[in-house]
Amino acid sequence: MTLKNVIVSHPESGAVTVFAAVSDESVAEAVAGVGGCVSLDISGELRHRAGGAATMNSWVESMRACSPTRKSSLSKDNQLAWKLPSALEKLDEIIRASEGKKIVMFLDYDGTLSPIVDDPDRAFMSNSMRATVRKLATYFPTAIVSGRSRAKVYNFVRLAELYYAGSHGMDIKGPSKGSKYAKGEQTGVLFQPASEFLPMIDEVHKILSEKIKSFPGATVENNKFCASVHFRCVEEKEWGELAKEVGSVVKQYPKLRISQGRKVLEIRPIIKWDKGKALEFLLQSLGYANSNDVFPVYIGDDRTDEDAFKVLRERGQGSGILVTQTPKDTHASYSLQDPSEVMVFLRRLVEWRKMARRRQCRLRREIEQMKAK
Ligand SMILES: [Mg+2]
């Protein structure tokens, strides 16, 4: 009898259940009536289960649930799970929790700093958001963590003073002139854990570009260390067939896996690396590997950001903020509605830091004056 570790995805909630070392029969039982599954064999290699129609359905259902136009399709239980306080209303609470610690900012791009638009190449960031992030980086170390290629997300943001973690954190680079926050050299590429997969991703990107031609509106983006098939402009009735097509291509590459985001399927190497690992790597780069003196704030809108929220929960540090207008199961602690609320939140954080710094300076001057008397 073959034993496997199995991950079952629940399409309604987007949650996953892990079954350790179970038989094929138990797999069938676990999957029945739930959704799709991928299996992780004992050697640790993740594979899509043969005939993964259920997996495809699960992705498509999850994508529908993630769609901003679907506000009422979730179960009552999920609505009850929707109790995240607003990060704007709880700003004082977040500030109190960060007292005496160094705040480090992590920002997703699409749906967080820029609105989700039909054409992913036109997901521009507003000038006012750029000015806000520039200001933010003068007070706190700031990183952009995106599923996009690093070059593409940099072209959107165009702020050289930030850290960039592209391709879901698989391509990390420091600020172009070094960081005032980190000790030692922080320029240039800091980490690329998936370099060996570059030719494979290129190949899959080319094949998928051909395959999706029969689906009007579908696009595939080469994000260097991963590829993204965008469903944003594809008619919803075609989503199932398109997902099936993507699945059949990726099935030929056992070293790649598919994950699902907001109207997108991402094809990524099977390595244990995600936005959560990128967050940990960047904290380590900044000298906060095992420190209690750091307060990371991560803001993101997508399923892939959950890895980072989870890391914060496990570390018992900082705040995860989910950008959403629909109920979702999440590891985040707070929520913001959309990029415009993100901007207000960032501005208020900067304003608080500016005032706190002024107060410190004034206090220092008063103490010096008293000493001089
Ligand atoms: Mg996003």
Automatic annotation (TrEMBL):
Its EC number is 3.1.3.12. SUPFAM superfamilies: HAD-like. Gene3D superfamilies: HAD superfamily/HAD-like. GO terms for biological process: trehalose biosynthetic process. It comes from the Eukaryota. The keyword Membrane does not apply. It holds the Pfam family Trehalose_PPase. It is an enzyme of class 3 (hydrolase). One of its GO terms (molecular function) is trehalose-phosphatase activity. Keywords: Hydrolase, Stress response. InterPro entries: HAD-like_sf, HAD-SF_hydro_IIB, HAD_sf, OTSB-like, Trehalose_PPase. Its cofactor is a divalent metal cation. It catalyses: alpha,alpha-trehalose 6-phosphate + H2O = alpha,alpha-trehalose + phosphate. Pathway: Glycan biosynthesis; trehalose biosynthesis. PANTHER family: TREHALOSE 6-PHOSPHATE PHOSPHATASE. Belongs to the trehalose phosphatase family. Removes the phosphate from trehalose 6-phosphate to produce free trehalose. Trehalose accumulation in plant may improve abiotic stress tolerance. This is Trehalose 6-phosphate phosphatase. It comes from Cuscuta campestris. The lineage of its organism: Eukaryota, Viridiplantae, Streptophyta, Embryophyta, Tracheophyta.
